[in-house]
Amino acid sequence: MNWSFGFQNGKPARYWMILLFFSVSACAQALDFGINKVRYHDHWQWHVLETDHFEIYYYDPCEKLAQAAARDGEAAYLKTSRLFNYVPQPQNKVPLFIYGTPQQFQETNITEEYLDEGVGGFTEVFKNRIAIPMDGSYYEFNKVITHELTHAFQYDLIYGEGWRSINLFKSVLVPTWMMEGMAEWNAQHLDGQGEMVLRDAVLNDQVLPLGLLNSFGHFPQVYTAYKESQSILDYITQVYGADKVPEMLKRMANNQSADAVIKNLLGISEDQLYGNWHFYMRTQAWARIKGLPQPEKYGDPLQEGVGKSDVSPDGRSVATLERQHLGLIDSLTKNKTGLKDDSFNKIGRAHV
What we know:
By secondary structure, this protein is an alpha+beta fold. It has helices at residues 13-30, 63-84, 102-105, 138-159, 176-187, 192-203, 223-240, 244-253, 258-266, 270-289, 343-347; strands at residues 7-8, 11-12, 46-50, 54-59, 94-99, 122-124, 129-133, 308-311, 317-322, 325-330, 336-338. The protein has a five-stranded mixed β-sheet.
């Protein structure tokens, strides 16, 4: 085969080489032994619900869910368009794929990557396709739609609209804390658990410097990174104004470093921003717990190192998630029961 850098069918040969390399890499990753996807529902009959800005793909049992997605999606689209002061071309409707359960979502072929239980949705960068499961909460469903739609707008601003190919090789490195923090910030996705995790990290000096949040890939648990990134943008909104957040992304998309953008827009360095935010969070946390007794005064701890927990409706049992291990604790006897690993998929998954 001739690998000279000429033109073939009107395209530079290096163009085809790059696409071939990434296609082979994707296939190799998809075929790694032990993590191949198993699809149990190859009989789905897909339908399309079109709205002003979306093409919503769903299968038969999810028609009502698709209608809810249409309503929530259009509201999120209007909100996000105003946020960025940007309206995509009308012909570029957002493809939104709806799955009835997290387990069915894990079978998606939109991406060949294996999706673990912690993935609550994703936006595929080549065609801006969004895939979201219903995990039983319409509140969470709405928040995830807004989160993922924010990514779709971000990709438009960074790589341009429509089907992307060579544009993805632009050397644009927007830090993950900006990408994910902005998606959570726009969705206003901060509940009691998120506040608790943040407060615990602040009080125990376990918050992460911004330099470590440029990528989340090295974290075994990314929930704290998501919430911290969101909290930093909340702080910027309170101190400098909400208009600074989309402007930060636009400048980073134009290849300005995060530190340069922060200095030009906020008048402080990246390290100073982190220090100011950290001091603010510590002040807020200590003010909230001032005068309160230690938690041990209210009762004995049931278990250490729990990542997520929930109490049964009758208050008798507490379900715990520690990394990938599920357990049940009897709140009266404190007896603990470990569940088999495959029970995780039978019961459901924690939304993180």
